[in-house]
Amino acid sequence: MTAAYQEGLHREELTPQADAPKVPTSFEDLGVPKVVLENLLLKHLSAYPKSDILHLTRSMGINSHLIEEMLSNLRKKSKVEVFQASPDGFLSQGSGGNSGGAVRYALSESGLQEADVAFAKDAYLGPAPVSLTDYDEMVKAQDVRIRVVTKDDVTHALSEVYGAERLIGVIGPAINSGRALLLYGDAGTGKTFVATRILNSLNTSVYIPYAVYAAGNIIKVFSPQHHKKLTAPDDENSFVFKEQFDRRWALCERPSIQVGGELTMDMLEVNHTEHNRVWIAPLQMMANNGIFIIDDLGRQPMPVDTLLNRWIVPMEYFFDHLALPNGQQVTIPFILTLAFSSNLDPESIADPAFLRRLGYKIQFYPLKDHEYRALWEKIAGGRQLNLEESVFDTLFDLHSRHSVGFYPCLPKDMIGISRDIIAFEETPPTITPEIVSRAWEVYFTADGKGGGAR
């Protein structure tokens, strides 16, 4: 039960699992207090002075007539000034009437002061947030368990995995169950690689909100680091109403978030610091409708029991309680695939009660010799390198003498070292027994077992 370390997978066209969120046409439809939206508009005008309606509409992700209504209200309060473009291209203060030039808006002195107050309370700057209710409904509509994954789906998802036939029969039911997984086995057997490819079997995309309004605060959810947009820029700017959806949401691939030994408990709560003053969603909230991989279980700074106990309620009831920095608490959906990966014996890192709560415990093994050889040939070919036939005699002898399994991480790493040697010595692009022996020597420690397998 293993995986190959290959670079990139072919992505088919993804279709949204849920209906697109409709474009809100009123403040009631937005589900967020108008004062919150006005404060956000003030911050946008402070950050981007003399913006026009189009820029503000795109920046906040809401209808232009709602932007205009807020601007009108702010003008009545003397918070906003209007500038009219003259034929020579200069901006001058005007009444905001339609005289053929572009109308732009900027903050007055009192508006700037109010924007500073808004920034001090909450420095979020981006599309308007969605309500917690709308978020809850969308996450539930995009639950991976709604659409049953078939054997063909999983076979396609693991098409780049060597030894996949030993995985398909357990991975498929595990995905459909929606329950947490424990992937365990020696370092380098491909646990994390397989986990990151689980979502390829779903062939669906999801809507991720840029931010959620909860308990009087804006929580930033969308992260370019963790979410990959599918919507093309031209589609985002479309003016055809039937092609539009609520632009407070981004159409994305299902999220795949991975964290290892650097995980701390703070990363699992809403994060807010005096430095950035933006409320950031915890990792599991960013991973909703996707997969959250906790790699190297047992190597985090906190005790394993503390980390595992954090997941008991979410795993059992599919919701999570978040404590906000201001002392309030909100409940969010917990609808994702939670995967733990460890090189350690499960019995040594978790008590039987917790192990019973894990739906699937999947052990990974080294590759078989013919799979290992095929992987070497494929990776070498992809790097435009040849392999002398006798290389495998030397390679298999090294594995046998040092009692090292056929781990799928080794071909990629050792071929990389071999290529470095060939490039440095300006020899023909062929990996010889001598080169592979030298690569083994620098990759592993003196006992032949301390390499970079992972």
UniProtKB/TrEMBL annotation:
Alphabetized InterPro entries for the sequence: AAA+_ATPase, P-loop_NTPase
SMART domains linked to this entry: AAA (SM00382)
Residue span(s) of domain AAA+ ATPase: 177-364
Disordered as annotated region, ranges: 1-25
Gene3D superfamilies hit by this protein: P-loop containing nucleotide triphosphate hydrolases (3.40.50.300)
Domain of life: Bacteria
Protein name in the entry: AAA+ ATPase domain-containing protein
Organism: Vibrio marisflavi CECT 7928
Organismal lineage: Bacteria, Pseudomonadati, Pseudomonadota, Gammaproteobacteria, Vibrionales
